[in-house]
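Let us work through a complete example step by step.
Step 1: write down the sequence.
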Amino acid sequence: MDALLSGERQTEVIPFSLEDAVVYYPVRHHSPVCAWHLEQVIARYNPACILVEGPENANDLIPVLTDPDTAAPVALYYAYRDDAGLLSKEEGEPESCRCYYPFLDHSPELAALRAAASRGIPAAFIDLPYAEILLATQAARGLRTREEKQSYASDQYLAHNRFQERLCEKAGLRSFEEFWEKYFETAGLDLSDEAFVRQMNTYCFLSRQNTPAVELEEDGCLAREAHMARRIQEAAARYDRVLVVAGGFHIWGLLHPGQEPSRPALPASAHAVYPMRYTMPAADALAGYASGMPSPGFYASVWTALHGDRPRQAWTDTVLDYLVRTGRRLRKDGTLISAFDETCAFQQAQMLAQLRDKPAPGLYELQDAVLSNFVKGEASLSGMEPLRVLRQLTTGQAVGRLCSGALVPPLARDFDSQCRSFRLRLEGAAQQEITLAIFSEERHRAISRFFHQTVFLDCGFAQRKKGPDLLRRRDRNLIREVWEYRWTAAVDAALIEHAVSGATMREACSTELRGRMAAAARAEQGADLLVQGFLMGIGDLADQLAGRMDELLIADGDFASLCAACASLTTLEEWQDQYGERGGYDYPALLRRCFARVLQMLPQMNTVDDHNVQKVQQACILLYQVTGREAFADQRPALLEAFERLVGQNPIHPALHGAALGLLYGARPAWKQTIDGVVRGYLQGTRAMMLQSAAFLQGLFSTARDLLLVDDGFLRQIDALLVGLEEEDFIALLPELRLAFSYFVPMETDRIARRAAELHGARGADLRRGAVDPADYARAEALDAWAAARLDGPEGEDDP
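Step 2: predict the structure and record it as tokens.
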């Protein structure tokens, strides 16, 4: 290591002596060896005060983090809403920012806080509050980058720079993580506290030297270090022995701070911090978490072993344990892994460590040993199951726990309470599945309402996989719902953000439903919100919002939106009876008013374009179905009158023309004569009319396909069209013709084909075909492969 990190002697640059009044201890976030040496330094130094890098507005939450009933992984959740426009001067929705500060058992910061609590000495976070860090950071830099999992504690300066890349090249290692494990984690156990800190300071100092100062200023590092240095000076004036625990990259800046810049005062309501449960998968650096180390479950096991009976064998024992656990899981899943395979893998891990000059095997020797001994055959995607299993095990599935007195929003408490009452499993990070009989089991209906509430609040907790979808009006014939759910840290984060809306899930959903309804600009949006309120079990609130729906119906002039609203209101009116949960509002009357608005606009839809014609067709079918119900039968005459006015328009889109005529025929068979005349006009008129005939048939068959099934004369007309077409015209019409005949089920298409064959002197039996010859099938496959290669590859290949 000394050969790699040649340069200035760090003892002259960053001093470390347990005789000093202020001792600076450098760490890498979530490093077991850093935490292990830190515990020894605390025992030897016996500080009177411990200061930790972390936003100081969370100091009141330190007792929660150190409470014996709090179990890691946990995190501090920071949020800031830029209502004052300090981050962005652009008009619009205020920018909302959030980040996490996770703590694992092997996090040095948590080890320091726990040590202070056990010794009864004060401990404090000394960094700027999260909101002030944002103000000190330039846009798109540092904590203001647009990342899904924004982390307060980042190791980017240690892990991502040209200096680090050259070190890995010189050491012959594949990544920074492998470099870190070799020279710090495994080798660190054999170093004294002073030697380990000296090595840390050297690496961190050289990393800082290779980082441009302008980046540190833009990322807010210099402002943070100046603030922390001031807090350290204040503590040194009160206590004779102060231990500072901070990221190794910042130690030089704490010893040589610049001037702390002035910042605008922020209202307390603009930013908040809460403790929350966290998960091992969320803390995994490979899962998108911007700080810490990969495979946190593996390093947590190392941490546990360091405090066991054989601390010097911690790495070797942990590697052996994971080899055995991986083999056991694979055998359980049906993979043939023997005890001999495990023995060989363990021996290889030890020999790889010797070859790589490591005192003990680590995570990367474990991965290489599993790849060599557990993967049978080619290491293809399908054969990598052992590595996938190992990845799951080394990541871990643990979910943290907060002590009973933790400051948790009432909304999150209500969520937990409901999960317990419904016996939903939250203790692991694995995905769970549940099937709900929503019509026969009241408890299942209650769970469904709860799941819909979490979806409405966008918690990311539950997702419906199967079952009736009332919003999209699909699968309404199903009587069961299948949901998948999984608790993640993002669930608690979402609940914290929505906590301002209410103390319970129902109350929060009610508040936000009111807000969204007030902000709705279209009837479609309003009707969807009423349906969501019904699904969430807050239909009584939907009754209160129905008045707003009347306003939207009057103001909305979009035909598609009104049709969608009509469909949603129809669904709502039907399913209130289906669920036995009819509200107090007169939804049939609301549906009638929506129906009237659609009828008023329907005749003007004759010039609809190809892109929207299907929506208008579906709207016509929906209106026809609604008037087929007894409660709305009196609306059928008005609908038919609107259809008559629509088909009387010229021009009119042929697909809409056919759909409306089919509906008129369904209500009054006497329209058959008119349809025959219109068909002749399309089939025997000008060439332009003939080219529109396929679209007309598509619309007609969508609403009255029985015409072709029962009327031989109609079949003859269609046959005459197809026979008389030129090849070029047939090719042009073919896509629309295929769509038109897609409305018939296979039995019906077979029946039509037999009758068409008889028109040309063939018998139905002549259409029967035997099984495809295997040789012909193989030939067709070869042709298909040849064609695909010709499309994707170079030209000039020989014919098959």
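Step 3: interpret the result. The two ends are 62 Å apart (CA to CA).
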